[in-house]
């Protein structure tokens, strides 16, 4: 997604090595070349990974360990929605949302923490890109199950924070919860009705991917003793 591209691009102004897992890495390969030609000091490394498949996630973390020793910051940005209402939706769509929005996030978090613990990293960060849908239920049947998965992300992030404290580590966990962001998300969500998707973004001045990237940078730049739990952000014109 464009959002993930910009989240990945923003830290490249700093000296970091960043691995990006996506189902289809061609777009990231193009971005990696652009970052290199722009002279960024960081490195963006595309990695093809189906986040609904645990074995592929584990293989990705294994490759990261081999090539780069491990993970210091994990940004869980993958997310999707299907038009599957609670009373009439298809189980396949529900399961896919749980697999990507909830389970993949949890698996990536677990593996990232393992990586940090193995290397005695005490100042790592886990950032979950959530949604305002994780804080209130949208009055649209098409989005109710999606909201349920995002409420899970809210609970998971707080649970991660508590478990990190129990582990007596200074690794931090943060949610970033945007409202409507102008990406291809709506076009995928309403893939059978592109006019409806376009209307979502035409109805107001939406957040941009750059806004989410800036929020990630802000969270990562907080002093070590500061725990930012959640950044809720929406367009000024958005009501809910």
From TrEMBL:
GO terms of molecular function: 3-beta-hydroxysteroid 3-dehydrogenase (NADP+) activity; estradiol 17-beta-dehydrogenase [NAD(P)+] activity
Pathway(s) served: Steroid biosynthesis; estrogen biosynthesis
Tagged with keyword Oxidoreductase: yes
Keyword Oxidoreductase attached: yes
Pfam families: adh_short
Described purpose of this protein according to its UniProt entry: Catalyzes the conversion of the 17-keto group of estrone, 4- and 5-androstenes and 5-alpha-androstanes into their 17-beta-hydroxyl metabolites and the conversion of the 3-keto group of 3-, 3,17- and 3,20- diketosteroids into their 3-hydroxyl metabolites. Exhibits reductive 3-beta-hydroxysteroid dehydrogenase activity toward 5-beta-androstanes, 5-beta-pregnanes, 4-pregnenes and bile acids. May also reduce endogenous and exogenous alpha-dicarbonyl compounds and xenobiotic alicyclic ketones.
Protein name: Dehydrogenase/reductase SDR family member 11
Protein encoded by which gene: dhrs11a
């Amino acid at each position: 997604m464009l959002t993930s591209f910009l989240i990945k691009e923003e830290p490249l102004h700093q000296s970091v090595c960043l691995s990006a897992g996506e189902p289809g890495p061609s777009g990231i390969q193009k971005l990696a070349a652009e970052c290199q030609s722009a002279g960024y000091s960081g490195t963006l490394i595309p990695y093809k990974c189906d986040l609904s498949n645990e074995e592929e996630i584990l293989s990705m973390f294994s490759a990261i360990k081999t090539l780069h020793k491990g993970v210091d910051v994990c940004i869980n940005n993958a997310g999707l929605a299907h038009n599957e209402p609670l009373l009439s939706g298809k189980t396949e769509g529900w399961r896919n949302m749980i697999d990507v929005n909830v389970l993949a996030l949890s698996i990536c978090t677990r593996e990232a923490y393992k990586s940090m613990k193995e290397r005695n990293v005490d100042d790592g960060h886990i950032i979950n890109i959530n949604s305002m849908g994780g804080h209130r239920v949208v009055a649209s049947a098409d989005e109710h199950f999606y909201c349920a998965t995002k409420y899970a992300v809210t609970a998971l992030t707080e649970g991660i924070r508590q478990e990190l404290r129990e582990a007596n580590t200074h690794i931090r966990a943060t949610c970033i919860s945007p409202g409507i962001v102008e990406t291809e998300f709506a076009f995928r969500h309403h893939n059978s009705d592109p006019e409806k998707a376009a209307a979502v973004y035409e109805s107001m001045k939406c957040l941009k991917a750059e806004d989410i990237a800036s929020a990630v940078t802000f969270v990562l730049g907080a002093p070590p003793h500061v725990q930012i739990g959640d950044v809720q952000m929406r367009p000024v014109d958005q009501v809910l």
